[in-house]
Design a protein that fits this description.
The chain is α/β, with parallel strands linked by helices. It has two domains: about 240 residues, Thiolase/Chalcone synthase (Peroxisomal Thiolase, Chain A, domain 1, 3-Layer(aba) Sandwich); about 150 residues, Thiolase/Chalcone synthase (Peroxisomal Thiolase, Chain A, domain 1, 3-Layer(aba) Sandwich), CATH 3.40.47. The strands form three sheets. An eleven-stranded mixed sheet has the order 5-4-6-7-1-8-15-14-9-10-12, sandwiched between helices. The chain has a two-stranded antiparallel ribbon with strand order 2-3. α12 links the parallel β9 and β10. α3 crosses α7, α8 crosses α14 and α11 crosses α12. The longest helix has 17 residues. The chain is globular.
Length: about 400
């Protein structure tokens, strides 16, 4: 079994459209959550929902990165994917050191080209308009994986995973197993999502789980999540290939665990999340007391944060109050299928730089949860093992384990 390391990073997020900008905002606790404005197809650009804020990417201009033909054939969601894949692949010199057929592309995307689909459906139902001939390729969830393959001329296994909010973490974990087993020598993996459309806002408003103020994970006064968008990607490869060319190694991927609650479509169950964490640790051949950081799913809803904290107690027992925990969703929002990739990036940077991001937005930590929430500023750390949790609707849980590279 190969050891697997991370040698390339890329991102477009509400807190930075390069890894360096994301890093700066992450450790400064600078939020990308802002008032909702200019929503396409919404009356006067206002979606008319009970919440007022979301986390959008403020500075993305597709014309600065892509030619007109690709822009015409893609949704913002896929455009994020192409640009971020280029960032990660360039940093790792991916295609220069691996044969095109030996590289996998495994993406997480749950919503596809939601805004393109809504726009065409609006025309259909209000004017009986003919759909644009590129509607299908703009809206399919796998468009990002396919367009990356075409853009970078990668011919290896290429596919998309759609498991709601666990999509990107499932993608990273499966890509990790593919590289570790020797099926491929490298993979480009992560997640991308741009779902913030009129209908998307309205659908989430009806669920009553979005904060009317803003996301405050693990806070005693938490009142819901904040919707977001973005993309983050990684180049992962065998340790042997990375060392052969003296590549920069950001962290080592050491384990992956997944489970299903088999309980309820929207209500999480602690035992399911606990099972995924245990499986990630077993896959990593790591003990619970090896873990020095957990990047929590931490949506800021009453149900998620309580359930996730309970799951952590089930896995780590008396060690739980001594494990630093934070959720970065208070900074970049909940990017649905891409959330695990953004949080995976935060975890990788934490290990690489030896400082753990703090949990922004907390007024008073909820004492009933009895977890060590990192407050006010980043916390220094030595070499450690970290978990990044993704717990999705449908009871679908995915957890990756990473280790500091020395």
């Amino acid at each position: 079994m190969n050891r697997v390391v991370i040698t390339g990073l890329g991102c477009i997020t509400p807190i930075g459209s390069t890894v360096s900008a994301f890093r700066e905002s992450l450790f400064a606790g600078k939020t990308g959550i802002s008032p909702i404005t200019g929503v396409e197809d919404a009356p006067d650009g206002n979606p008319g929902v009970r919440f007022t804020q979301s986390a959008t990417v403020p500075d993305f201009d597709a014309t600065q990165h892509l030619d007109s033909g690709i822009i015409a054939a893609t949704n913002r969601n896929t455009q994020f994917a192409i640009v971020v894949a280029r960032q990660a692949a360039q940093q790792a010199s991916l295609t220069q050191h691996h044969a095109p057929g030996d590289i996998a592309i495994v993406m997480g995307c749950a919503c596809g080209g939601r805004s393109s689909e809504e726009h065409e459906v609006k025309g259909l139902y209000t004017r009986d308009a003919r759909a644009h001939p590129l509607t299908i390729i703009r809206t399919m969830s796998s468009a990002g994986a396919s367009q990356i393959s075409i853009d970078l001329k990668i011919t290896g296994p290429t596919f998309d995973i759609s498991t709601a909010c666990a999509s990107a973490t499932h993608a990273i974990g499966l890509a990790f197993h593919m590289v570790r087993s020797g099926m491929v020598t490298a993979a480009l993996t992560g997640g991308h999502e741009a779902p913030l459309s009129f209908g998307f806002y309205r659908a989430w408003d009806s669920m009553r789980v979005v904060s009317p103020t803003r996301c405050r994970p693990f806070s005693a006064d938490r009142d819901g999540m904040t919707l977001g968008e973005g993309a983050a990607m990684f180049v992962i490869e065998t340790l042997e290939s990375a060392q052969a060319r003296n590549a920069t190694i950001f962290a080592e991927l050491i384990g992956f665990g997944m489970s299903a609650d088999a309980n309820h479509i929207t209500q999480p169950q602690a035992s399911g999340a606990a099972t995924a964490m245990r499986k990630a640790l077993a896959d990593a051949n790591a003990a619970p007391d090896d873990v020095g950081y957990i990047n929590a799913h931490g949506t800021g809803t009453q149900a998620n944060d309580a359930t996730e904290s309970s799951a952590i107690h089930q896995v780590f027992g008396e060690h739980t109050p001594h494990i630093p925990i934070s959720s970065t969703k208070a900074l970049h929002g909940h990017a649905i299928g891409a959330s695990g990739a953004l949080e995976g990036l935060a975890t990788v940077l934490a290990l690489h730089e030896g400082r753990l991001p703090h949990n922004a937005g907390v007024t008073t930590p909820d004492p009933a949860l009895n977890v060590d929430v990192i407050l006010n500023e980043p916390r220094p750390t030595g070499p450690t093992v970290a978990l990044s949790n993704s717990l999705a609707f449908g009871g679908l849980n995915a957890v990756i384990a990473l280790k500091t590279w020395i």
